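User: Hey, quick favor. My workstation is busy. Could you predict this chain's structure for me?
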Amino acid sequence: MPTRHRARGSFQQLLLFAFLLITALLLGVVLRAVSQYDKLIVQSRDAARSALQLSGAAQTLAERSAAMERSGRQSLVLNDAVLRRRFNDAARDAQAVVQRLVDNGLLPQSAEQWRTQLGVIEGLMNGPQDSALSREGSMAIQFRELDTLNTQIAQQAQFLIETQNNALAERLERARRRLMQQVIAASGLAIAMALAFGIWLARPFKRLERAIHGLGENRLEEPIDIRGPADVRRVSQELDWLRLRLMELDADKARFLRHVSHELKTPLAALREGVSLLEDGVTGALTPAQREVAQILNQNTIALQGQIEALLRFNAAAFEARQLSRQRTPLLPLIEQQIEAQRLQWQAQGLTVRAEGEPLTVVVDPVKIGTVLANLLSNAIRFSARGGTIQFTVSSTVDLAIIEVADAGPGIAADDRDRIFEPFFRGERQPEHAVKGTGIGLSIVQEYIAAHGGRIELLHNSASDGPGARFRIELPRSA
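Assistant: No problem, here it is.
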């Protein structure tokens, strides 16, 4: 088992940290919104109280002025000390109201005019009794002036109230816009952080997925070392341990096959030599029955030797499938090269071989893909009826390069379709008067295609396609 190294933070801890960070961001925006809301509530309450004070003070000033006029004019006519005290009390209350208005924003000039006018009225209160009636008439005129000033002060108070309301409305609107900007910014930042954390945390899992695919495709040379959270790191170490174990098992299998093949080939060679000696009559003349037995033995030793050599070739191909030398390779010229290499074979059968389609260039090992095409073409020549056509077609999708190969043979039997890529399997529809195959050609094809990250499948022919087998190869367009 691999040695386990401690890594900082597991996936669960990092996910919790990301969640808490985004929650803290959104919570901060909410708390700031609540704080601004509280401030606006206080400002609104202060504005309402100020408006009530201004409105009430303006109304009280009018009432106090009316009380002053009533008690002042009566005091002059009746020369009554009680009425004079009432006038003075009303005047003192009115001045206090004016001061409150000034404290709440009334223009000092208006307050000064009002006080000056009150001084004029108070001056009319003093004088000889015989001029009381004339002074009372002048006082009435001065109180009308005072009422005019009261009206102006009331208008100013109303203007102040409207100004404060407008200012409060503007502050509310600014706060709303600011809060909306903060919410949008915080939401955008939260989304960006969530995406960043998601991509960052998902990246090790994509590497794990690629590593597992590599193991499944028997690509065992590259070490698996995935950086990330502690638990991902542990899985990476376990996968690398598994890779090493698979390499050991693969090496053991290859070593076993070599040893067994070597151990079999030596006595097999002696057996073949002995049978040949018997057939040649070295040990004495053979009867017809004995010669027939010797021929059967010779044929079976030849078949057995072929099987052993095929097993070694398949084992070598499985190992070589992991040794890829990729380069940019045009597909149609590679297909035409294989067609030209086997020209004598297909011309001897009276066949026509065509290659057509898109001029695609893919990143592959041209030697191994050339072997794939050569094996498929060799099979197609072997199974196709004389005078038939073998067709190679190249096409593509966004991510894949596709090669289809169709022959003019009897096709693959339905019972054989699921087993044609198994090593040493030979289907029931074998061509007449042809050398019996080893059954490893398509297995090697599948090994080489899988090593490139692609796949090969046998297509089901439709009624319009006619007889024959159709294979489809899919290769990634980039390495």
